[in-house]
Design a protein that fits this description.
Helix content: 25-40%
CATH topology of one domain: Nonspecific Lipid-transfer Protein, Chain A
CATH class of one domain: Alpha Beta
Strand content: 15-25%
Structural class: alpha+beta
Largest sheet: 5 strands, mixed
Order of helices and strands: HHEEEEEEEHHHHEEHHHHEEEEHHEHHEE
CATH architecture of one domain: 2-Layer Sandwich
Strand order of the largest sheet: 12-11-10-13-14
Protein name: Stomatin 1
Number of strands: 16
Family: Belongs to the band 7/mec-2 family.
Radius of gyration: 38 Å
InterPro entries: Band-7_stomatin-like, Band_7, Band_7/SPFH_dom_sf, SCP2_sterol-bd_dom, SCP2_sterol-bd_dom_sf, Stomatin_HflK_fam
């Protein structure tokens, strides 16, 4: 007797018959679940009718024009309820109101390192609305928290790819770019980003100055400016420049330029930690203590050791070892080279922290106040000599004499 699978081979017929049996079992199981659900729903309706009019206060809900109702009955999603009066069955219905109006939240200002190594403080205001109420409840657990985290991460990632000038001058383009990136991520959540307003960036640290190569600006032997630049460069470096004759008048000959020697200024010798502490002890006073109000401990790698600067007690003092009689507010770990660069003003504390050259344990905000200490220590250091003296605690302090 021919069947609907007679044209297939034996193995294919066995597989299809097996799939048919599994499909039939699933359909029967679903029918059983549906029947049980209908029975429970019928009992809930009967219970709501028997408890009238008390059940009206629990079962009747009003949905406003700007709202939608998402209902799960016995774990199954029901059609989205439109504005009006709806009936909720107690115990078996779980429902939520979804506000379809435009909502907004603020991304708090945060420090961002731009592409050209500038540090800025940027925040934003994000406006969004829900397009799919079912997705907003079924896809993401906490929509508000997820939106805030995603907006903050997206803003940081975009700002890190831009230069400071682009952030300041192209705020509209940056906002559109951030809006597009957020819409790609939130589309599956049933959310549409309506608008993003980026706050005015506050520059914490300007980018390093760009110094163009002057020689590349005046290339070419026929250029008179190039000839003049070569003479000036040779006079500065002490090398006799070769001045080429002008091609416009071959008969004219130039006398070779006389070498001019100029002594290069000696490169400043890096200061040891004890010398830096001695300079600090020489310039610290009560005014600096009131301004800073912090105890620093420096863990210098290699042979640098441990040093402290106490800017909380008395007139301030520094020395070798951990702080005396108190706990440090900020513990700064760095190399001796980075410490010299920090106190010589070659890099700021913020840049060193952002680049990972300095690690801070404790109050990072207090560590950033080292800029004021560095400014105070930028004084003429000629004629200063250091000596080791023993303090009341038996330690050797470095003093300027």
């Amino acid at each position: 007797m021919a069947t609907k699978y007679s044209f297939l081979g034996r193995q294919d017929r066995l597989g299809l018959y097996s799939n048919d049996s599994l499909h039939t079992e699933r359909i029967s199981a679903n029918k059983t679940v549906d029947v049980i659900g209908w029975i429970i729903t019928f009992i809930a309706y009967v219970f709501a009718i028997l408890t009238l009019p008390v059940s009206v206060f629990c079962c009747v809900k009003i949905i406003q024009d700007y709202e939608r109702a998402v209902i799960f009955r016995l774990g199954r999603l029901q059609p989205v309820k439109q504005p009006g009066v709806i009936f909720i069955l107690p115990c078996i219905d779980k429902w939520d109101r979804v506000d379809m109006r435009v909502k907004a939240f603020n991304v708090p200002p945060q420090k961002i390192l731009t592409k050209d190594q500038a540090a800025v403080l940027v925040g934003a205001t994000v406006q969004f609305l829900i397009k799919d109420p079912v997705a907003s409840k079924g896809v993401v657990q906490d929509l508000n928290h997820s939106m805030r985290v995603l907006a903050q991460t997206t803003l940081v990632n975009i700002m890190m790819t831009l230069k400071l000038v682009e952030i300041q001058n192209d705020k509209k383009f940056t906002s559109i770019h951030a809006q597009d990136e957020l819409n790609k991520a939130t589309k599956s959540w049933g959310v549409q980003i309506h608008r993003i307003e980026i706050s005015e960036p506050q520059v914490i640290c300007a980018p390093p100055e760009f110094k163009p190569d002057l020689a590349s600006m005046f290339k070419g032997a026929d250029n008179p400016i190039s000839t003049l630049f070569q003479v000036m460069q040779g006079a500065t470096s002490g090398i006799t420049p070769q001045v080429l004759p002008s091609r416009s008048n071959p008969a004219t000959h130039h006398a070779p330029a006389m070498p001019v020697s100029r002594e290069q200024p000696p490169h400043p010798t890096p200061l040891d930690p004890d010398q830096l502490v001695a300079i600090f002890n020489h310039v610290t006073d009560e005014r600096l203590v009131q301004e800073i109000g912090c105890v620093y401990q420096f863990n210098i790698s290699g042979q640098g050791g441990v040093w402290y600067l106490d800017l909380k007690n008395g007139c301030g003092r520094g020395g070798k070892g951990p702080p005396l009689g108190c706990m440090p507010d900020a513990v700064i770990s760095l190399s001796s080279e980075d410490m010299h660069a920090l106190f010589a003003g070659e890099m700021t504390a913020f840049n060193a922290y952002m680049q990972g050259r300095v690690t801070v344990e404790g109050d990072v905000r207090m560590a950033m106040k080292l800029e004021s200490v560095v400014e105070r220590m930028k004084q003429p250091r000629m004629g200063m000599r250091t000596a080791h003296v023993q303090n009341d605690h038996g330690r050797n302090d470095v003093m300027i004499i």
